[in-house]
Predict the 3D structure of the following.
Amino acid sequence: MRVEVAVPKCVSSGQCVILAPDVFDQRDEDGVVILLDETPPTELHDPVRVSATVCPAAAIRLVES
């Protein structure tokens, strides 16, 4: 799995950070998503998929390999 984020689409809801804190973080100044790991290990795939599903801006895209 490869994770891509569309930073301009992010609305800073933070759901991704709550669900997958090893993969996502937020900028201090505005809360916009920071991608920490674009190829997370297998054990993080499920929370990353949920993060992509619940993102209100659809800013997270997953490329399954």
Summary: The mean pLDDT is 97. The longest helix spans residues 45-54. The radius of gyration is 10 Å. The domain at 2-63 is CATH 3.30.70.20 (Alpha-Beta Plaits).
